[in-house]
Every structure is written in structure tokens, then in C-alpha cells.
Design goal:
Elements: H1 6-21, H2 24-27, E1 32-33, E2 39-56, H3 66-70, E3 75-93, E4 98-102, H4 108-149
Antiparallel strand pairs: 1-2, 2-3, 3-4
Length: about 150
């Protein structure tokens, strides 16, 4: 097989076409900025497939004489490619956090993980508030006790 065989040109053309179709902007899309300053970036899954093939055919004479043997055999070939782009989710960037919002329907666990820090902060706030109320009640009881003793 020589270095300038027709199958090489066929494969090179197909691969260049795939390269033009799929770039980083296909996987991580262009950012969109909302009015409140939030930036939304789409994220996708890209899959590619490629196939090429071909063959050389003998001439009707069978290649008996020297002149027919020196000429290259006729070539027939083809190639194909496919690209699949599936949205996966969105990166939502605000001034104080970055969240990933998946597209698929089974996101309960992902959503719980996403909300866990907020939940922990709320629970800590409730505990601190309860402690403050307890301290205030104790101070009020002491103050009421000191008022009744006077």
C-alpha cells in the first residue's frame, strides 16, 4: 500500500469533516448572562462514529501483460460518520455559588446533594436560634427572680 493510496485521502476527508462539526463549543456551549448577573452554560455529551472502507478491482484482462501490471488497479470506496449530541445539564454561576443542574428526570439524589449545604446552614441557624432563646429565657428568669427578691 503506497503512501498516497485513495483510502487515505478518503479517511482524511472524513476525519476533517468530523473535526469541523465537533469542537469544544459543542460540549460546553456559549454562556448566556441573565439580567440579574447569573451566567448559564449548557453542557452536552458528544459521541462520534466513523467508518471507511474500499477495495481495488482487477481489470477484465486479468493483468497478464506488463503494461496492465504497472498501472494501479481501479479503486472503489466510501466512508461515513455520525455525531450524536445530547444535553446533559447546565452550569449556573451566580455571585456566590456554582451549581450543576442536570437535564435528565432522575435527579433526586443530585438535587439533594446540591441542596445539602443550604440545609445544613438552615439547621445550624435553627440550633443557634434555639440556644439564643434558651439563654434569653434563663436571663429573663434570673431577672424576674431578682425582682421578686427585692
Amino acid at each position: 500500500m503506497s503512501s498516497n493510496h485513495p483510502i487515505e485521502a478518503l479517511m482524511k476527508t472524513a476525519m476533517e469533516s468530523i473535526k469541523e462539526m465537533v469542537d469544544v463549543n459543542t460540549v460546553v456551549g456559549d454562556a448566556v448572562e441573565a439580567a440579574n448577573g447569573t451566567v448559564i452554560i449548557p453542557v452536552s455529551r458528544v459521541a462520534c462514529g466513523f467508518a471507511a472502507g474500499g477495495g481495488e478491482f482487477e481489470t477484465a484482462g486479468g493483468g497478464d501483460n506488463q503494461q496492465e501490471q504497472a498501472q494501479p488497479l481501479p479503486f472503489g470506496g466510501g466512508s461515513g460518520a455520525g455525531v450524536s449530541v445530547q444535553p446533559v445539564g447546565f452550569l449556573v454561576v451566580t455571585s456566590n455559588e456554582v451549581r450543576f443542574l442536570p437535564v435528565d428526570g432522575n435527579t433526586v439524589v443530585d438535587r439533594l446533594i446540591d441542596l445539602a449545604p443550604n440545609l445544613v446552614n438552615q439547621i445550624q441557624g435553627m440550633i443557634n436560634k434555639k440556644k439564643e432563646n434558651k439563654n434569653e429565657n434563663e436571663l429573663a428568669a434570673e431577672f424576674a427572680g431578682s425582682q421578686s427578691n427585692s
